[in-house]
Specification:
mainly beta, Jelly Rolls, six-stranded antiparallel β-sheet, 29 strands
């Protein structure tokens, strides 16, 4: 310990003051680094025993008796230590006690705290080790025009932490993802909250699985610690971790709506491209982005093709925002997911509401989505298509 700190045992946490600690050993640097005993805020004993930074404090209950000990650093934390005081206040052996502490001044510190029970209860102490933040893992890398990693591409995975750590063993520390070693990059000694791991695509590489970390054993980060010497806490990884990128909207313009200019071709009538005849909000007619409800003339059999230019997606969904006043008009329309021009999943819209969402089976791969109208009076306001880039796999 360092600074002015209290360590002890309590049966409840009734306040954030030292006054609520039932049995406390106080290391008081204000009186020449000497121990003082407090019980329920009452100063019970000035021990006159001097401690040094790095020494250990111990408070025990044996039966109903509470005892306070001082252990020198050189003797180690598991030594019996020197008895400082035996309390005249007994403690019911059936009353559960927990580790309690209090700090008098900024910079005071307790380290290597441990709690033991003769009943072998499942106890843990949060020592505030660095932990991954929410959405901590991210993957990115260079891709070709088909969305696939190529020979020599660098695939990068970053890990965001909630506090600073110091880099160590750069180039040998690693994470194993989908059977590939992603090596830690950077400079040893750098203080940062972000770890970056890189894998360079090799000849004949192939990954047939998602980007999964199978277990904590696949995270090798030797000697990477925070300023207090704590290793990164990966306690939340019990059954592996999927860091495959999340689904994203594939066809949006600057207003967040589907467009007919980039990923979406023209209307089609019998395989022949045709212009959109009319878009309206009920008062105006215009062409271009789908800002308003779409009313195709003579819609029956016509379709819109959303074409992703050969980039493959999976785990996707199709979402159509209906014209609210007449939601039933879109019933009967067909949504097809295609791969290399072949329909791999087809769905007919029925019982339409304000929002229609169609999700094919997981891991189905597609590079086009087709919306075919059934009936002449069909219309809608907006289409969004979501998916994961399957070609984040190395092939």
């Amino acid at each position: 310990n360092t600074g002015r700190v209290m360590l002890g045992l309590s049966s409840d946490d009734s306040s954030d003051s030292y006054r609520s600690i039932d049995y406390a050993l106080y290391a008081d640097s204000g009186i020449g680094n000497k121990f003082v005993i407090y019980e329920s805020s009452v100063r019970k004993r000035d021990t006159s025993v001097v401690y040094a930074a790095g020494d250990y404090m111990k408070v025990t209950r044996s039966g109903t008796q509470i005892k306070y000990y001082h252990i020198k650093a050189s003797d180690g934390p598991h030594a019996k230590g020197t008895l400082l005081y035996t309390s005249s206040k007994t403690s019911n052996a059936n009353t559960k006690l927990f580790l309690d502490s209090s700090f008098h001044n900024v910079g005071a510190k307790l380290t290597d705290m441990q709690i033991f029970s003769g009943n072998n209860l499942a106890l843990s102490v949060d020592v505030y080790a660095p932990k991954p933040t929410a959405d901590a893992w991210n993957i990115e890398g260079a891709v070709n025009d088909k969305g696939a990693f190529t020979l020599g591409s660098k695939v990068k995975i970053t890990l965001a932490l909630d506090e600073n750590i110091t880099l160590a063993n750069v180039g040998s520390n690693k994470i194993v993802v989908a059977g590939k070693d992603f090596l830690l990059t950077g400079t040893n000694g750098t203080v940062t909250k972000t770890l970056e791991f890189v894998y360079t695509v090799q000849l004949n590489d192939k990954i047939d699985t998602a980007f999964n970390i199978d277990s904590k054993d696949d995270i090798v980060l030797n000697d990477i610690q925070d300023v207090d010497g704590n290793n990164i806490d990966f306690g939340n990884i019990s059954n592996g971790l999927d860091i495959t990128p999340i689904s994203k909207n594939l066809v949006l313009n600057s207003k967040g709506l589907a467009t007919i200019t980039t990923n979406v071709t023209s209307w089609h009538n019998g395989g022949t491209a045709a212009n959109i005849s009319r878009m309206t909000d009920g008062n105006t007619s215009s062409s271009g982005v789908l800002d308003y409800a779409v009313h195709p003339n003579s819609a029956n059999g016509k379709y819109i093709l959303f074409d992703f230019k050969g980039v493959n997606y999976n785990n996707g969904s199709f979402k159509l925002y209906n014209r609210k006043a007449v939601v039933s008009r879109i019933n009967g329309s067909i949504v097809d997911f295609l791969k290399d021009g072949v329909v791999v999943s087809t769905h007919t819209i029925s019982n339409a509401g304000n929002i229609i969402e169609i999700t094919p089976v997981s891991n189905l791969v597609f590079d086009q989505v087709k919306l075919t109208f059934s009936g002449d009076a069909q219309n809608f306001r907006e289409v969004k298509i979501f998916g994961k880039n399957t070609t984040l796999l190395i092939d």
